[in-house]
Design goal:
By secondary structure, this protein is mainly α. It is built from five helices and two strands; from the N terminus they run H-H-E-E-H-H-H. The chain has one domain. Helix content is 62%, strand content 11%. The relative contact order is 0.15.
């Protein structure tokens, strides 16, 4: 029995992909990204816990070393992307790009 060919995102094009990814990236920027960056900063300062404002609510947690390692890997991966991919990310994020890059990748 022959299986039908499955078509992926390549048919949708970059514009559609960007439109679909933007809400997800904005949510990551405003929630988990903020927590990851605060965790990383607290770990570097030798703190055992931290608190950060996430969408108007105070988030408290113990420093989580694995999260700090994750942000290091994300930063290294992001900083090694080809300029074409960085441009795609910048376009997808629009005016929120600087906040996202500053939060997670600086």
């Amino acid at each position: 029995m022959d299986m039908p060919e499955v078509k992926g995102d390549e048919q949708l094009g970059q514009t559609s992909t960007r439109q679909r990814l933007k809400p997800l990236l904005e949510e990551i920027m405003s929630t988990y990204g903020v927590v990851m960056a605060a965790n990383y900063a607290a770990k570097r300062k030798g703190q055992t816990a931290f608190q950060v404002n996430v969408k108007g609510d105070l988030w408290r947690q113990s420093v989580f070393p694995y999260q700090a390692k994750c942000i290091e890997v994300l930063r290294a991966s992001f900083n090694s992307l080809p300029s074409r991919d960085l441009s795609t990310i910048a376009h997808a994020l629009g005016d929120k790009r600087r906040d996202f890059v500053d939060t997670l990748f600086s």
